Amino acid sequence: MAFLIPFAIVSCAFVIYPAVEAVRLTFYTKLPFGSTLTFVGLDNFRDVFADPVFWAAVRQTVLWTLASTALQTVLGLAIALLLHQRVRGINIFRGLLLFPYLVPTVVAALVWRWMFNPEFGVVNAGLRWSGLVDGDIYWLSEPRWAMASTILLNVWKYTPFVVICVLARLQSIPVELEEAAQVDGADVWRRFVHVTLPQLRAVLTVVVVFRTIWTFNKFEEIYLLTRGGPGTSTFNLAVYAFEQATANLRLGAAAAAGVVMLVFVFAGSAFYLRLVRQEER
Amino acid sequence: MRGRTRSGLRVWLIYLALSVVTAVMCFPLFWAAVTSVRPNEEILRVQLIPHRVTGAHYAALLGGRRMYFEAATGYQPSTAPSQHFLAWFANSVVVCATTTVLSVGVSALGAYSLTRLRFAGQAVVPYLSLLGYMVPSIIYVFPLFLLIVELGLADRLPSLVLGYISITLPFSMWLMCAFLKSIPVEVEEAGLIDGASRFQVFRLIVLPLALPGIIATSVFSFIVAWNDYLIARIFMNSIAQLPLTVGVMHFFEGVHVDWGLMMAAAVLMTLPLAVLFMFVQRHLVVGFGAGAVKG
Q: Residues 117 to 156 of A: which have CB under 8 A from any B CB?
């Protein structure tokens, strides 16, 4: 029992206290250079909900989360199936394909800014060389392309997560199932749809829930690449909250946006826990 | 005979697909490495294989020299030239290592007592931990900062350790619970009957058995701490006190962007994680298997 004391103290002070404090802050306003908090009731929420940028951020968060998660899941599933093949040297490919997941977000953002540089970047050079586009694409300074770039970065970095989870499950499926279907004359596609996919349903559900929540929460992947710009066109809720707190010095409004995020996250987590209980039963 | 040629073709198609996917996924890192060794005069021309190779960017970062176009343009970097790179690197190593030791130590003890002893509300703690690592850091980073200011730790490295623990602790607790649950209680009971104390049992029986799990949890904690930008950005201010992530982003300030220097920094920042990963790859599978990876 005594072993639990350090954990209890540390988690109360540095995890639970800040979270509770964040909720409390939504009812207060703090002057930039004073340390006193003034109670303002629900004003922060009213301000945030009246802010068109907030609603734009909500829409962009939804777009960014759905597009990223969908692409990651489909790509991750495909790559996992490819890595599940028994050919010589497959472990080298497995190791290499895991790598993007390890790369710090800051590094990914640096490399992205360099590769997607409109004048000197390798991406535009490649597109021009292949004749697909004529001029330059302004990847990070045109709203549509900026959003696409952030999604691409996110998909690149986190597809390996899906691969790892799906591959782990694939390797625990008994080979006999597949072989039996083969004997019965099912072709590759049918074997995938009727034998493999049902086995993967549970792990895919968990992966999608986790990825949705984490992608929804992401801050650095967007902020470091585009700073939420051009303008506010790649703001998600985390970037919105960050800007409220740092640029506008409105901690209360930032906390209010944070609590809105928290509602989404709790809904997602509750959904996940229900799935886990169903599994256990 | 026909069957064999068909399967031979199949194997080649698999290799082809694997090579294409790997090439695409690894290209950004390849490109960073290539750019980092190209001389500044040529860097803006795209060449897949560099004609000339230089170590100047690495020398500038590791030698702590000021480079940054000074000779060519007389431009004086005002904020964060490359000379701080080594200090940032050292800061990151020290802070992340301390964070890892503390958060894994605390959560190993905590998880042990959760999975072995009985008390009310026991089952709730792992789920609360899970919730804890679903909560986005943007929510608690500002209240946490206010707390750090009150403790008088703002802009000092210990504040980073505390901040990082707030991200790593919930998730290492969740992982440690999963690992310790899989160790049979009978072994420990045998130890207790033989007259060992609880702590002796923990140290001599549980810890060695849980070692793969502890290694996996440590590596994940280290990676998460190493990758953080947000907390350090809010907590730290002095240029020499920054960790790598925030420091390196300062390279974008100023009139010129020195891409070679930046890509060299990117490579050097990734290297420790790559080395760490290669050493413990086997153990990591255990961690992924436990189904809890922060991302």
A: 119-120, 122, 125, 156
Is the preceding omega at residue A52 within 30 degrees of 0, hence cis? Answer: no
Give me the residue from B26, B139, B291 closest to A258, CB to CB: B139
* B251 neighbors B265 (Cβ within 8 angstroms): yes
End-to-end CA distance of chain B: 48
Q: Which residues of A, range 30-69, sit inside 8 Å of B by Cβ?
A: none
Q: Could you read off the pLDDT of A234-281 as tens digits, one per residue?
A: 999 999 999 998 888 888 889 999 999 999 888 888 888 787 777 766
In this complex, which of B141, B166, B227 lies closest to A15 when CB atoms are compared? B166
Tokens representing residue A125 in the block: 């050079």
B293 interfacial to chain A (CB closer than 8 Å)? yes
SS3 B288: helix
Rounded average pLDDT over B117-138: 77
Tell me: cis bond preceding B272? Omega within 30 of 0 counts.
no
Q: Do A105 and B277 touch (CB under 8 A)?
A: no
Of B143, B169, B295, the CB nearest to A10: B169
What residue ranges define each of the domains in chain B, with the CATH number in brackets? 2-53 (no CATH), 84-289 (1.10.3720.10)
**CATH code at A38-280:** 1.10.3720.10
Model confidence pLDDT, tens digit, residues B252-283:
776 677 888 899 999 999 999 988 887 777 66
**Are the Cβ atoms of B132 and A15 closer than 8 angstroms?**
yes
Please say whether the beta carbons of A78 and A115 come within 8 A: no
Question: What is the ipTM metric for this complex?
Answer: 0.88
